[in-house]
Each structure stands twice: as structure tokens, then as C-alpha cells.
Specification:
Elements (H helix, E strand, L loop, with lengths): L1 H48 L23 E7 L4 E6 L7 H14 L3 E4 L2 E8 L2 E8 L1 H36 L1 H39 L3 H27 L9 E4 H9 L2 H7 L3 E6 L4 E4 L1 H18 L5 E9 L2 E9 L31 H11 L3 E7 L3 E8 L1
Parallel strand pairs: 7-9
Antiparallel strand pairs: 1-2, 1-5, 3-4, 4-5, 6-8, 9-10, 10-12, 11-12
Helix pairs in contact: 1-3, 4-5, 5-9, 6-8, 8-9
Length: about 400
Amino acid sequence: MIKRLRIKIVAVIMVILTLTVFAIMTAINTVSWSSSRNEIETRLYRLADNDGFLPSDETIEIFHDSQSGYIDTFSVQITHFYEVRKIVISRNIKVEQSVIIEYANEALNSGKNLGELGSYAFLVRNRPYGKIIVFMDIQQYQQAARNLLLITSLTGIISIVFFFIVSFFLAKWLVKPVKSTLEKQKQFISDASHELKTPLAVISTNTDVLEAEIGENKWLGYIRSESLRMSELVNELLCLARLDDKSGHALNFSDVDLSQLVLQTALPFESVLFEMGKTYNVEVQPDIKVKADESSVKHVLTILIDNAVKYSKENGEISVKLYTHSGKKIIEVYNTGEGVPKEKLSKIFERFYREDEARNRKTGYGLGLAIAKASVEAHGGKISAKGEYGSWICFTVTLP
């Protein structure tokens, strides 16, 4: 429970921080590229307004030329009849006209007035003589955007790793009071259960003595009945206390013939169910072995079958199956009956939880399925429930 709580706290913190870091990264890169786009558009418009020539107040450093033959800007003037009127380049650089015209045709065919073709940004504007298509090399802007993205990404990753480490220790600190309270609660349950065994045994013994002296009567019957119920509760609490024990001595693992164990546990219910008029089917795949605590697995089976008997409808159907699938040992306990609402299926394994709080207390204290879940998980397995409310329910135990 504590481990799951820590994982949830870390997960929540990391989701919030990751979204925050991602939002900041996105904002920085978006604002930067937007600023670059505005700068590119401004220069393209100035070039177009000057018929493709570099404005007199524009410094040469704006269109940096770091390699021989590198084109900063060029433009194509087209008449109303779509004939090339003039080609202008930003500097005295030799450029094949066929390449320039090819770019101009692509820009016109794109149907956009402003766009990009590879490493060039282009602008198409109407002029008195027809159109002018201005091109500008934006590799420096693209490279700057890539560099910024790389820097922000690395910073974001480092930040997330740092926050993960911090959140890990923070979660450990946050769950400390919960862990302390839970350990005290478990210790109290264990101590109280042990302390209650003695007075219950004394009550039961004295009841037998009184009955021997004065004979049977309903008052002694009530005392005996309630003593037995209290003894069952104490035994269940002790069972949970043993399963909560992490010292490694709670369970005694050995090689178990699971097929025989299921048959030995399930078949004794046959006569009882026959008298109740209920259909009972047991299907067991032979020779299935498992490394487990035999008494613990038997207890889980007893809990599940006993639940099926209690909550199955009159003339209902109960079935127990054992088989293997993908190397896993699967036990299924199915019964027709009222079942459990879908939204409550995940809660029925909680301690002291009962789906119907108004249900007669004789149905139990809500510890049986909690014990089954703890036992199965102690074996490295899983237990789950599925069903259709008002019709049936099926419990599935998966063991490695």
C-alpha cells in the first residue's frame, strides 16, 4: 500500500512538472520562431517593395554569405502574361536562370502568397507590371531554431530527471506519517487479536461448563454463537497480520500439486450444494504443479468457493476451474447470482468492504477477499473479478 502510494505521488508530481516543462519549452520555441518569422516577412516585404533589390539602408551582414556561390536572396519579376521580365539577385553571384525559374514556378503553383520551399522563404506580390516573387535563404533561422529546440529539450530532460529524484525523496517524506500510522494500525490489530483469543477461549469454556450444569438454553446458545463469530473475526485478523508480516517467515513455500489441492478443497462442497439444489461443476486440468504455501492457497480457494455458495441464487450454478495459460496457473470460481456493480468490482478486495452495507452481518466482516488478495499477491500472483450485475460473477486467480 505504501509503495503504491509513493508511486502515485511521484507519478502525479512528474505529470504536473513534465507538462509544465513541456509548456515552457513550447512557449520559448514558439515565441522565438514567431519572432524569426516576423523578421523574415519584414525583409521579404522590403525586398518586394524595392523590386527585389537590397534596400539602401539594409546592411550586408543581414544576408550573410559564408560560402562562395551562396545565394542570399533572388527574385523573379513576371509580367501579366506570365513571362519573365527580370531576375534579380542580391549580389553579383552566378546563378543559373533555370534554377531560379524552377523555384518561381513552384512558388506560383503552391497557391500561397507567403511560404517556404526547402531552405528558402518566398513572397508573391502584385506589382504594376505583373508579379514579383522574392526568395530569401533562411537556413540561419532554421539552424537557430533547431539549436534552440535542442538546448531547450536537453534542459527539459535534465530538469525532469532532477525533479524525478527530488519527487522520489519528497514522496518518501510525505508518506512517512501514513507509513507510521499504518504500521501502528497493523501492530494494534495483531496485538488485539492475540489478546482477544484468551478471553474468547475462557468464554467458550465457561459456556460449555454452564451448559453441562444447567443444560441447554437459548441464552447460552447466543453466547456460544457470538463467541464463534468473534473467534472467526480474530482468526481472520490474525491471518491478515501474518500476511502483512514482511519478515519472510509468514508463508512456507514448497512444491504443491495444485490440481490435487483444488480437488481436495472443492469436492467437499459438492454434497452441501447438492442438498441446496445448486448446480456444481469442478473442472481441473491434471498434473499442475506450483511453488506455493499449501495452506494459504487452500484458504484462498475456500474463501472464494464459500463466497460463491453464500451469494449464489437458489437453484443457481457454481463452477471451479483450474487450467494453465501462457505458463500461468489460472483458477476461476464462478457463480450465478446478484453479482457486484461494475464500478464496485475494484473495491471488493478492500478490507472490511461489503458491497451491501445493509446485508446481514452473518455474511461476514468484509475480510475474506482482502485475505485472498493478500495471499495471492504474497505468491507473486494476481486476483481479479468480473461479472454482470444481477446475473453472475467470476473470480480469477493467476499464479506464476
